[in-house]
């Protein structure tokens, strides 16, 4: 018993109920250093030497190779002593922030609510559904009108103007076609007269007995060909102006008329749909449908009124433009034809100057933009 007392005084380390060293700060530091050793060192043995206040003996704690989990212990489990805490405080980069504080930091701050992402496929499907429903209603309205079962909205004054415009367009197209035929035939005649004049001029040089007779005919044919080219220029100018009026101005107005007619069919289709719903029973199921139908009917009614006003305005401006254009072109056509068949070359040339018509010389290319400047 006397021999075991020194050993016990050196080996035993008095601790408190919390597991901390009571008699020395050095013992606490050694124990914390043992706990904080990294697992990757692969040490097979660790020694911690502690010195007592009243003994020169040393206490040695032997430890084998580390076989625990490679993850470091959680900070909430570790309870370092004051010495270890002071040493760890000097290394700011080695401090471990508890997971609870990170969660609190991420949750703090303003919360941003993102807009709901719209699905393009659903949008296209909705557009197809609306288009299909609208097409079905319009087709039903057209069939009903043709069978005499459905009613249609008619603006008598506007419909009369549209019918007159379509009839005039057909007549102007006929005039345009005949004028193009005249231009083609006149071009062939002028070409023939020019060739005939060249033939007469060649014979006047080779036939001495008929030199004067061939010469007169050659000069006449060349003069006719020249006047024919002047008349051809006036006719081509007339054709170009009428073609612009028929195939551009009038056609643009008729496109607006087609849009007006489509708006009228949609308006009548939704009007008929609303009338059918109003004739049926009114309950909790039909009231939302009636309100939606009323909203659609009002929207198509506004569209129909707008298109009707656009057509009225375009018809008014078209009539004014048509009268102005056709007045000038008809005067040109009359004066040119009269001067040509009267043989009045000066009057024919004066007519072209009056309408600022420039003839293109055969076989001569148009001047470049550098020559024009």
UniProtKB/TrEMBL annotation:
Query: What subcellular compartments does it reside in?
Result: Golgi apparatus, trans-Golgi network membrane
Annotated segments matching region Disordered: 1-28
Name where it mostly resides: Golgi
Q: Which residues form the AH domain?
A: 153-353
Provide the GO biological process annotations.
Answer: intracellular protein transport; regulation of Arp2/3 complex-mediated actin nucleation
Keyword Membrane among UniProt keywords:
yes
Q: One GO term of the cellular component aspect?
A: trans-Golgi network membrane
The organism's superkingdom is given as: Eukaryota
Q: Which PROSITE patterns match?
A: AH
UniProt keywords, alphabetically: Coiled coil, Golgi apparatus, Membrane, Phosphoprotein
Chain coiled-coil ranges: 155-182, 290-321
Query: What Gene3D superfamilies does the annotation carry?
Result: Arfaptin homology (AH) domain/BAR domain
GO function terms (MF aspect) = phosphatidylinositol-4-phosphate binding; protein domain specific binding
Q: Which PANTHER family match?
A: ARFAPTIN-1, ARFAPTIN-RELATED
Task: State the protein's name.
Answer: ADP ribosylation factor interacting protein 1
Q: Which organism is it from?
A: Suricata suricatta (Meerkat)
Name the lineage: Eukaryota, Metazoa, Chordata, Craniata, Vertebrata
């Amino acid at each position: 018993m006397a021999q075991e007392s020194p050993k016990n005084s050196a080996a035993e380390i008095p601790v408190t109920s919390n597991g901390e060293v009571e008699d020395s700060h050095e013992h606490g530091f050694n124990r914390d250093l043992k706990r904080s050793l990294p697992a990757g060192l692969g040490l097979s043995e660790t020694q911690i030497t502690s010195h007592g206040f009243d003994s020169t003996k040393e206490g040695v704690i032997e430890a084998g190779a580390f076989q625990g989990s490679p993850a470091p212990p959680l900070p909430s489990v570790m309870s370092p002593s004051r010495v270890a805490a002071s040493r760890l405080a000097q290394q700011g980069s080695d401090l471990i922030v508890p997971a609870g504080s990170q969660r609190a930091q991420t949750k703090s701050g303003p919360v941003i609510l993102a807009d709901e992402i719209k699905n393009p496929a659903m949008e296209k499907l909705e557009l197809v559904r609306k288009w299909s429903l609208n097409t079905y209603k319009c087709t039903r309205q057209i069939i009903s009108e043709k069978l005499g079962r459905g009613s249609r909205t008619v603006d008598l004054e506007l419909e009369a103007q549209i019918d007159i415009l379509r009839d005039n367009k057909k007549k102007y197209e006929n005039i345009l076609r005949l004028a193009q035929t005249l231009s083609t035939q006149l071009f062939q005649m002028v070409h023939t007269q020019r060739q005939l004049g060249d033939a007469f001029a060649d014979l006047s040089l080779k036939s001495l007995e008929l030199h004067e007779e061939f010469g007169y005919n050659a000069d006449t044919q060349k003069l006719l060909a020249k006047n024919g080219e002047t008349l051809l220029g006036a006719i081509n100018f007339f054709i170009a102006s009428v073609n612009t009026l028929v195939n551009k101005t009038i056609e643009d107005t008729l496109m607006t008329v087609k849009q007006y007619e489509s708006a009228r069919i949609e308006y009548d289709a939704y009007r008929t749909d609303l009338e059918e719903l109003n004739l049926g029973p009114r309950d909790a199921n039909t009231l939302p449908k009636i309100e939606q139908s009323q909203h659609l009917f009002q929207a198509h009614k506004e569209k129909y009124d707008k298109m009707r006003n656009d057509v009225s305005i375009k018809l008014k401006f078209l009539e004014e433009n048509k009268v102005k254009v056709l007045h000038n072109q008809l005067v040109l056509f009359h004066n040119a034809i009269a001067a040509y068949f009267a043989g009045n070359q000066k009057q024919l040339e004066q007519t072209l100057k009056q309408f600022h018509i420039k003839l293109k010389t055969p076989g001569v290319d148009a001047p470049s933009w550098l020559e024009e400047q």
